[in-house]
Structure prediction request, 450 residues.
Amino acid sequence: MMVGKGIEDIDISMPRDAYDIGKDTPTFRAYLTIIVRDSEGKVVKVHRQRSHSPTANFIGLMLPLTYFNVTGNSYTIKTTGGSTYNYKPAINVNTPCISYPNSANNYPSYIVMIQVGSGQQSNPYTAYSLAAPIANGTGPGQLVYGRPSVPPNITVSGSKAYFTISQSFNNNSGGTVTITEVGIVTQIAFGASYSTGAAFSGNVLVWYDVLSSPISVPNGGSVTIYYTFTVNP
Amino acid sequence: MVTPDLVSEEDIAKLIIPDDLPDEQPTFKAYVEAKVYDKEGHLIQYHRQPMRSLTQYFLALMAIPIIGTYQGASINQAPGILTNVLGLPSSEGTCYSTNISWDWAIQLGSGTQNFSLTLTGLAAPILNGTGTGELAYGSLSVSYVGSTILISLQVSNTTSSAISVTEIGLTGTIYIQYCNGGISKYNFLFSYDTFSTAISVPALGMAIFQITLSFTG
Prediction:
């Protein structure tokens, strides 16, 4: 649309569909599916909710080289233990970037786990660890962590595509264990391509959700958590 | 929801297939924006529309911070999503150290095409230049505010005719750097959108195109 010279308030010409009215067709969504089984393997609860919260770590790891090249800034990546690394990738053999498989396998980057917890925090974006992680074990309040499962491919269905990562947990604690928060923890290692050592390596929380309702896992039972990421849902 | 009779893997598969959950806020919002200025620098057009179409390559790129670049702590191979979707190498067998990084760009075009998850380019890319039908691409700007990433490109029309922009894509290159200084490059189209109304950049005018990716909860 043409507007005259000197128009300063460009809002007057903004198309109606540009306003956020909560009815846009999103191009990306993430979902949490949680299935709880009792001690006999019978499904006793299915929980589904939108997943809302990539963390600041995720945003920093997604940023393209241009951001770092043009601004000269680095991005602070914070591990679950609270240590930090100023991430500033570049096309340069002496500059650390995210590690990639090679002959030495000296500093791998890989998904460590879907972590569950019994706490919650109000600002998921700034979260770098779960508020109250549930430990891996058989003691009171603990769950036995399985291994995360990652599909070998993206599933395509019409114009949408998605992948799902999952992990199961067994409750051998002797009592009910309640889950209120979930996150994805990935080991991220940064290394220069002309170096055999990692400049930095640590467990990083990249995704975090507080559950819309608590999930109780009965003694002797299990729970499987599915994170589904999709485009054009 | 309690469904004690739900036991089969098929039932579970149906549950994790993405479909809408009503009354919940979206996770991700994306916009395509254009501001057009005439040769005197006056704003003459402003256009903003929701982004509709991410390709499977964007999803695979997003997977890297989530699943990492290795299959496991002691599995010296890249995950299948990286090799099968992005076509990246499973492992660099001759180098003692290798790393990965990526960059983005905005590509404009004057054509249209149907969306596909595997699109690799625009229908009719507008070349960077000063010839007929070309736009002079300025430098790209990337910034972020919280969980929103903004990518902006300024273009100038140095020709004597207006140039119509009908399509826009977020493109990108993934770099694998090797210990010997070698670099492998992999190019992708991460998003593709056609404008609901064409953007006309007048002769000697300029325009700023912006893609906003907001991972808001």
